[in-house]
User: What shape does this take?
Amino acid sequence: MTDHTPVTQDELHAFVDGELPADRRDAVEAWLASHPEDAALVHAWRAQAEAIRARYAGVADEPVPARLQVERIARNGSRWRTIAAAAAVAAFIIGGVAGWMARGASAAATPDSVELFTADALAAHRLYIGEVRHPIEVGATEAHLLPWLSRRVGTSVRAPDWNAFDFKLLGGRLLPGPSGPAALFMYENANGERVTLYCSKLSAESSGFRFNANDKFAAIRWVESGYGYVVSGPADKPRLKNLARAAYEQMENRAAPPGNRSSVDQLMSRRGS
Amino acid sequence: MSGFHQGIQASVPALRRYARALTRNAETADDLVQDTLVRALRSEHLFHGGDIRSWLFTILTNLNRNRLRSLARRPPATSLADDDAADLAGPEAGGRDIERALAMLVDEQRHALLLVVLEGLSYREVAEVQGVPIGTVMSRLARARAQIKAYLDGERPALRRIK
Assistant: This one.
């Protein structure tokens, strides 16, 4: 008995890729026999696949260069594992003190200066997450990382502990910000995804979390006591929100999100698209 | 060598193949593979079983996306002359057509198509690698195939006319 349900484009792809359930194979073959246009499509897709394999399959047979030998990398890389493990500890020990209050945060800034600030943070994020070898300036294990950035930024800067989200601190760097030196901390998870926290002086009124996103990146920012903070990462709002909340709670040593005791979701107002 | 290390080493040829098709440059591809291996070894404690090859493909795919994002800030400067001598020895015109067609895809589509067609991953595995539902993988595949077909259909008659 052949199933005569019309064949969809998805089924044609699944047929080509060997993903079609066995009980639909006969139906698709019968369909192709009577629908030459679909048969031509399937033929074209198979030809594409063959061309791709013909072009690249041979790479897997090339001798593997020494720099891609796992044992060799493991020997050189043991230093890195020590750094990753120590990073969590360092982030915990230093900066356990509650936030520093800006005195006389004068000159109320326009919303534009906050937008500019966020744009700078996102630009730094975009630039440095692509750096494979030198994403950071000072590694997480170096004891002077936080004291140095704190001194330059002008407040006790703390790198949040995001181990609960599988993000490990790689380290940080100092950057020129729109209203003074800015600290950028970079984190990475096991899948190679990176998130950053950007922090600098910002004379603007304290504000709750705000979400900015395009199709690839997203940022959550807030302003507290004369300092602005931006958490940037892949465009995954719930996850970024959890990271931002954890950072805020650890930094300010309190449980409620900024400005309000209600849920963070209510504080998030969508900007852009 | 530990089982974990052996599993990674055994995946290196496939990682190199995937990376070469993604980057079209042997040096860049091996850089990408090396960074993938460094990260995998560093994250051994985070690997809780499962398919090690899929996990490595996930890392490499994310690293490549990071790389493309930082490149995207520079003006596009694609040279048709391949700077890779090894590739010049490879198959001729047919190979070049498919290379250029792949280069025109957006990276999510290229990742999905190559993982399915070149690396033989199932739709489900690709969905996990890309962190999206299976339906999204299928629509990426469909768009990739449609674009490649349009490119190849448009190119061939033009080449014939020149001849």
Summary: Strands of chain A lie at 138-139, 168-177, 180-188, 194-201, 207-213, 217-224, 227-234, 269-272. Residues 88-110, 254-273 of chain A have pLDDT under 50 and may be disordered. DSSP finds eight helices and eight strands in chain A.
